[in-house]
Amino acid sequence: MADGVTASDVQTVCTPEDLRATVGSWKAAGLRVGFVPTMGALHDGHLSLVRRARELSDRVVASVFVNPTQFGPGEDFDSYPRSPERDAEMLAEAGCRLLFLPQVETIYPPGGSTFVEVEGPSRDFEGAERPEHFRGVATVVLKLLQLAQPDLAVFGEKDAQQLAVVRRMVCDLHLPVEIIGAPIVREGDGLAMSSRNVYLSAEERRAATVLHRSLEAVRREVDAGQRSAFALSQLVLTVLESEPLGRVDYVAVVDQEGFRPIETLADRSVIAIAVRFGSTRLLDNLHIELG
To answer: Does the pTM exceed 0.85?
Structure first.
């Protein structure tokens, strides 16, 4: 267990009052509080966020909440994997000290009618594919940040567009929280860790490694001096289309902050891809820092 933390040391709370009381006592004692929001079904990618938050703060709060408003019609809200007891044990091992486990009615009180729309970075790609998704993400993240009142919050870079949306919202609404991006955690064969990987058949799981291979091909080209977004996106498509089980939704070369398409790589760029394997849709990306 991290820093001598055991599962019995991790307090689980379900109400805003208990969450605020515990966090308030920590902050009154001068402790810096980190926060990691999750939808559960945790894997080492999530735990890397908790460990990063632990490095940057004195106490870590994590939430486990499968947010209904970010799922569109026909998506996997009902079947989304849920394992709260296992999640709590894994969070303890990573150094979390407080788990917020709210009910849907707690986050979305009956009669509620307030939602958050973040224009700009939410417009294209995932925003176009799943029109209500980022409204749900921004709304729940704002609610959780308001409830937890952390000094910092850690989000994974795997969901690069989501990270851009959250950063834009925090900046626009002047929220007193620092947003930290943490690198993608991968399996040994390069597949980015995701709760949805469990939906893949054995054959689809093998085929899905093409995502990482395509991004590694781009990395080599960038290292060799290639800066054309068109050339890099064509390279990604060529590699992805070599795998017959994959169906490409999009390949995008964008700036990190606004998530808008660019023609030439800038200092902070992202190459983002979405590919379907059977009924499972996987995201991956490569962050490029030229500076």
So the answer is: yes
